[in-house]
C-alpha cells in the first residue's frame, strides 16, 4: 500500500473514531512500527492530526480560556485579515450582530472605515465604543449583566433583548472548529448570546482564525448546518481547508 493510501485510511479512521493506536495500524497495513510513526509524523506536520503516546488523535482540546486582554494580542494579523474579508459579506444600511470577541473587534475596525450607515447589535462594550464617532450608525448595546473580564453583557435580559430584532448578518466567533464536534466555545453566558443572535439572523457567519481549526473547546455551540459560512485567514493549511470543504462546509480565507 502506498503512503498516500495509508494517509487517507488513517484520516478516515480518525474522523470516525477520534483516536487510533500505532499497534492497530501496524496490523491493518502490515507494516513496521517505524513506518506507522513516520506516517503519523508526516500527517502531524500537515496539521491533520496530533500524535500522542501510542498513537494519534484528530483534534487538540482547549479546556482553558485565555483572558480577553491576552487573546487581543494573539494572531492579530490573521484577525485583521478576517476583518477585511468579513466586510465583503456586508451591504450599506444592513443590521449586523456581533458577539464579544477579539476577532469581531477587528471586524468592527474594518467595518467603520468602509461603511457610512449600519445598525450594530452587540453585547461587547469595546465593539460599541468602536463606532461612537459614526453618526449615521445605530449602535444597539444589549442590557443585562456586565461580565467585567470580557467587557461584555450576558444574562437573560440580554438574551431576551436580542429576540426583538431582525438581523441581516450575524458574525459569531468560535474557539474551536472540528469535524466531529463541529462548533465549540467557552462560557455559558456568552454562548447563549451567540445562540440568540444566530436564531434572529438571516445569514450566520462564523469567524475564527486558522489556529481554531481541529480544536475542541469546552462547550458545543452549534452544528455546521446552522451556519452559512466560515471566515478564516490565509494561513489555514490547504489540506485542512480541503478536508472541511469535503464535508460541504463553505470556508472563505482569501
UniProtKB/TrEMBL annotation:
<keyword id="KW-0804">Transcription</keyword>
<feature type="domain" description="HTH deoR-type">
    <location>
        <begin position="3"/>
        <end position="58"/>
    </location>
</feature>
<dbReference type="InterPro" id="IPR018356">
    <property type="entry name" value="Tscrpt_reg_HTH_DeoR_CS"/>
</dbReference>
<dbReference type="Pfam" id="PF08220">
    <property type="entry name" value="HTH_DeoR"/>
</dbReference>
<dbReference type="InterPro" id="IPR050313">
    <property type="entry name" value="Carb_Metab_HTH_regulators"/>
</dbReference>
<dbReference type="GO" id="GO:0003677">
    <property type="term" value="F:DNA binding"/>
</dbReference>
<dbReference type="InterPro" id="IPR037171">
    <property type="entry name" value="NagB/RpiA_transferase-like"/>
</dbReference>
<dbReference type="Pfam" id="PF00455">
    <property type="entry name" value="DeoRC"/>
</dbReference>
<protein>
    <submittedName>
        <fullName>DeoR/GlpR transcriptional regulator</fullName>
    </submittedName>
</protein>
<dbReference type="GO" id="GO:0003700">
    <property type="term" value="F:DNA-binding transcription factor activity"/>
</dbReference>
<dbReference type="InterPro" id="IPR001034">
    <property type="entry name" value="DeoR_HTH"/>
</dbReference>
<keyword id="KW-0805">Transcription regulation</keyword>
<keyword id="KW-0238">DNA-binding</keyword>
<dbReference type="InterPro" id="IPR036388">
    <property type="entry name" value="WH-like_DNA-bd_sf"/>
</dbReference>
<dbReference type="InterPro" id="IPR036390">
    <property type="entry name" value="WH_DNA-bd_sf"/>
</dbReference>
<dbReference type="InterPro" id="IPR014036">
    <property type="entry name" value="DeoR-like_C"/>
</dbReference>
